[in-house]
Amino acid sequence: MKLYLVTSNENKLKEVRLILPAGFDVESIETIAPKKDIVEDSATFFGNSLKKIEAYKDLGVPLLADDSGLVIDSLGGFPGVNSARFMENSNYLTKMQIILDRMVNEENRAARFVCAALFYDPSNVVLVGVEGKVDGIIARKQSGENGFGYDPIFVPQGYSQTFGVLGDSVKKELSHRAKAFKKLFSLVYLYTGKK
């Protein structure tokens, strides 16, 4: 089954392909349609994912979409649904440093990555959604060059190194996106009858 991921982020596409089960193929939506400016202004990750589906549902192809972010307890959930849009014109090195500066004297470093993923089948007008989370802490400094986004400051629970150090082999097993899409693909298998 061919699915189209509503993203222009090659790193997201790569992560989804790492966990893609047999019988499925995923491409960026931009292989069949021009990029659209989608205003992700929902208060929830699911709401932003749904905006992505709605923007392309008229194409009549099976769609995948996700929205994800970093939620930091001591910062009241910041950056949360605004993770990508926080300081939108700055790179992630700068964004991470600002977060670390805000937390310099903070002992409560609890955080989590959250991903809300959706599957849309236009032939039966079916929408399936799941959420994946990975708990951890915010490191005291940036570390590692693997992954993308906030990976160099996030240490997943049970590990002593950041996702930026741990790399794809660990991320494909326990990242928020991996957890969400594994659940989603299981449900899509049930829905489509693929084994």
Structure explained in plain terms:
With 195 residues, this protein is an alpha/beta fold. It has one domain: Maf protein, CATH 3.90.950.10. It is built from six helices and six strands, in the order E-H-E-H-E-H-E-E-E-H-H-H. The protein has helices spanning 10-18, 45-56, 92-102, 163-166, 168-174, 176-192, and strands at residues 2-5, 25-28, 63-72, 110-121, 126-138, 154-156. The protein has a six-stranded mixed β-sheet with strand order 2-1-3-4-5-6. A hairpin with a 4-residue loop joins strand 4 (110-121) and strand 5 (126-138). Helix 5 (168-174) packs across helix 6. The radius of gyration is 17 Å and the shape is globular. The mean pLDDT is 95. InterPro entries: ITPase-like_fam (IPR029001), RdgB/HAM1 (IPR002637). It is an enzyme of class 3 (hydrolase). Keywords: Hydrolase, Magnesium, Metal-binding, Nucleotide metabolism, Nucleotide-binding.
